[in-house]
């Protein structure tokens, strides 16, 4: 694959981001003006064409810039279930492969970060085997013979991201408005905080240690170990644990019974993180997981971890209980009780709630247990509802915690669809929501 250095010029990056925001904004404005003279059928077709055209612009620009810019694009791409399929397919390119940085640049970073690297590493592959928004991963072998994966942060990426944040906010408002029509400020604040956390690989190493401790009695989840002597704030070396990649795991090469086990283990991993540990692996990109033939799931990449407040977690648990106990009339007040309501203080209307409630209730039905499948029509229906109800949600108030929680849950439901998993979702939801509600009363 061709390599290319990161554009680290603040002016150049600002121009590109501003240009992108401007082109998307003009496209959106033109589409809004023309909708008044189009028929309903033509309007829908043209809106979708505009979304696709703008998605291509996003992928081309953000994929090239990497850093905070690309990370924002990845966040949008993980809402694939709530986007038109054509748009989701284009944005998914940001989840796969970023252009790789030249070998000599990454090797210079290793030499600067680990002066005695020759005493630690027997061999480091020149070719990176994975590239992402803020770092590149290389295979390596230690002097003691252990195979490892070395995640190397792009040189200067911390400066690039902090510079991007100055210019990216305005651009993101235009990009986000392609798909959503809600208050952007809390979303931006939460995204900014998570982005800055991901720059610190020592923090990620701490996250891995804590996640390992929390899952000490859960053999179904495999967490690669940190190689302490070969890790710094910009280099993270982990034992290399090879598994079946997601695309292969979802194929007919493996029996559905095994895919169901993988799906259940993924489901429990996320529900355990939210409702029991309150230490949530909040990057559901399917590339962050791999699978073993005995049913275990390998979990990679701990840069994005969400530690939600107990009050929010218990709010989700109570909301889930309204679904499990078939109490749709209690949903508006349950949402308000944990901070989700309209700006004037009123609850969301029952008319707005009921269609969503029905969809979620089907997912958590007891018999027959729900099977997640790509062509179920569920996500298409959610997208249709979102488009139809935009005007009622523009003044929504919500805790910032829910941004990454919702992103994680919706992303994992998409992963379960790819596995076509069926499982005892009702029983598991009851079990984990009970654990959250048994945790006591949140402190004030």
Jot down its keywords.
444 residues; alpha+beta; 2 domains; four-stranded antiparallel sheet; 19 helices
Q: Could you explain how this protein is built, in words?
A:
This protein is an alpha+beta fold and 444 residues long. The chain has 2 domains: 10-95 and 157-181, no CATH class; 243-444, no CATH class. Helix content is 55%, strand content 11%. It contains 19 helices and 11 strands. It has helices spanning 10-34, 40-65, 67-77, 85-91, 93-96, 103-113, 117-120, 157-176, 185-198, 201-214, 246-249, 256-277, 310-324, 331-337, 350-363, 378-388, 390-393, 401-419, 425-437, and strands spanning 121-131, 135-142, 147-153, 221-222, 235-239, 280-281, 289-291, 297-299, 305-306, 341-342, 396-397. It has a 4-stranded antiparallel β-sheet with strand order 1-2-3-5. It has a 3-stranded mixed β-sheet with strand order 4-8-7, with helices on one face. Helix 2 runs antiparallel to helix 3 (67-77), helix 2 (40-65) runs parallel beside helix 4 (85-91) and helix 12 packs antiparallel against helix 18 (401-419). The longest helix has 26 residues, at 40-65. The termini are far apart.
């Amino acid at each position: 694959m061709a390599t290319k250095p990161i554009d680290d010029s603040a002016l150049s990056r600002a121009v590109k981001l501003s240009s992108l925001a401007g082109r998307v904004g003009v496209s959106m404005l033109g589409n809004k003006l023309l909708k008044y003279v189009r028929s309903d059928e033509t309007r829908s077709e043209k809106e979708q064409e505009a979304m696709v055209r703008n998605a291509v612009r996003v992928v081309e620009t953000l994929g090239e810039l990497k850093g905070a810019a690309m990370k924002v694009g990845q966040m949008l791409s993980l809402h694939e279930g709530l986007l038109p399929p054509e748009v989701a397919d284009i944005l998914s390119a940001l989840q796969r492969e970023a252009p790789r940085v030249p070998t000599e640049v990454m090797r210079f970073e290793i030499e600067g970060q680990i002066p005695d690297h020759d005493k630690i590493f027997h061999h480091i592959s020149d070719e990176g085997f994975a590239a992402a928004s803020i770092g590149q991963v290389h295979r390596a072998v230690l002097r003691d013979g252990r195979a490892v994966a070395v995640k190397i942060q792009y040189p200067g990426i911390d400066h690039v991201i902090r510079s991007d944040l100055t210019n990216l906010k305005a651009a993101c408002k235009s990009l986000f408005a392609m798909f959503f029509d809600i208050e952007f400020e809390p979303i931006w604040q939460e995204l900014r905080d998570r982005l800055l956390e991901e720059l610190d690989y020592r923090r990620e190493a701490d996250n891995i240690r804590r996640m390992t401790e929390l899952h000490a009695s859960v053999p179904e989840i495999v967490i690669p170990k940190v190689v302490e002597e070969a890790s710094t704030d910009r280099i993270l070396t982990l034992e290399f644990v090879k598994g079946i990649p997601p695309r292969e795991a979802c194929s007919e090469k493996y029996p559905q019974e095994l895919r169901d086990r993988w799906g259940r283990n993924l489901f429990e991993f996320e529900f355990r993180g939210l409702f029991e540990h309150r230490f949530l692996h909040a990057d559901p990109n399917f590339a962050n997981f791999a699978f073993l033939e005995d049913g275990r799931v390998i979990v990679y990449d701990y840069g994005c971890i969400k530690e939600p407040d107990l009050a929010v977690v218990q709010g989700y648990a109570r909301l889930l209980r309204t679904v499990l106990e078939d109490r749709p009339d209690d949903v508006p007040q349950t949402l308000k009780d944990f901070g989700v309501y309209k700006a004037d203080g009123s609850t969301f209307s029952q008319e707005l709630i009921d269609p969503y409630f029905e969809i979620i209730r089907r997912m958590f039905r007891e018999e027959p247990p729900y099977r997640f499948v790509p062509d179920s029509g569920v996500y298409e229906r959610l997208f249709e509802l979102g488009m139809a109800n935009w005007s009622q949600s523009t003044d929504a108030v919500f805790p910032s915690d829910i941004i990454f929680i919702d992103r994680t849950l919706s992303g994992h439901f998409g992963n379960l669809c790819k596995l076509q998993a069926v499982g005892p979702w009702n029983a598991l939801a009851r079990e984990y929501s009970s654990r959250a509600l048994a945790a006591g009363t949140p402190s004030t």
